[in-house]
Specification:
By secondary structure, the chain is mainly α. Helices cover 54% and strands 3% of the residues. It has a two-stranded antiparallel ribbon with strand order 1-2.
Length: 256
């Protein structure tokens, strides 16, 4: 089963509530605090989005399908809901419908790439990710997906290049855990120990020491065999004097 996270590209519609300090009026028994304004009614799209956030994907699909007129955004969201249910045929169908309405819709192109990735058609996945990047060249999540597709093809050099670009664009790109949004970020890989080694290497190159050490530990715990690469690969040079790094090198963790 694929592991997917949804990256929200929508701006927040409401500002966070601000706390108010209420001062008691000792001269009047009547409070001067105004009555709260009535909450606006939820639209069908808002109700569907809430269902998606709760992982009630079938309910979300039913609600999205009632929304008229149909839009490329709606088709894409229906595709994501089917995708999360691992119904890849219907997911692909709705991403393609979104693209018929808006040919340069980078999010749907990316999401269609994740369908091909799930079906192990890595060449087609890479083609779609590159196409999406021509439209959205600053998307860290799409670069992350591109790296993962190259990783699946065992082209680790190109995978590293894509991961490095993703991290430059968004330092949190590999930490996303959202289940709501319009763009899928693929996390399913066969060689998890090696995948975490390359994430450690990417963070080390970026100077993000704590995360580099964290993913180094994960790689070792998952049975990464090429321990000498933590010493030989130049990206780890700056980490080698650290006591934490040396401790991890000597550690013999139980493989998970």
């Amino acid at each position: 089963m694929t592991t997917l996270f949804v990256v929200s590209l929508l701006a927040a519609q409401t500002a966070p509530p601000q706390s108010q300090a209420l001062v008691a009026d000792t001269k009047s028994p009547i409070s001067s605090v105004p009555a709260p304004s009535p909450k606006p009614a939820l639209t069908p799209e808002m109700r569907a989005d809430i269902a998606m956030a709760r992982k009630d994907y079938r309910q979300a699909i039913d609600i999205y399908k009632t929304i008229q007129p149909f839009t490329h955004l709606g088709y894409n969201k229906i595709g994501i809901a089917y995708h999360q249910l691992t119904d890849l045929d219907n997911a692909r169908k709705y991403y393609e419908r979104a693209l018929k309405m808006k040919k340069d819709y980078a999010e749907a192109i990316n999401n269609l790439g994740t369908v091909y990735y799930a079906n192990k058609s890595y060449r087609r996945a890479i083609s779609h990710y590159n196409k999406a990047l021509k439209i959205a060249p600053n998307s860290a999540s799409i670069y992350s997906n591109l790296g993962t597709a190259w990783f699946a093809r065992k082209n680790y050099e190109r995978a590293s290049e894509a991961y490095q670009k993703a991290l430059e664009l968004d330092p949190e790109v590999f930490e996303h855990r959202s289940t709501n949004g319009v763009l899928l970020q693929e996390r399913s890989v066969a060689e998890r120990a090696k995948f975490h080694f390359y994430l450690s290497k990417t963070y080390a190159k970026a100077g993000m020491v704590e995360r580099a050490l964290s993913y180094m530990r994960k790689a070792l715990e998952e049975g990464f065999k090429e321990r000498k690469r933590f010493v030989e690969d130049p990206e780890f040079t700056s980490l080698q004097p650290l006591p934490e790094f040396q401790e991890l090198l000597q550690l013999q963790p139980r493989v998970l």
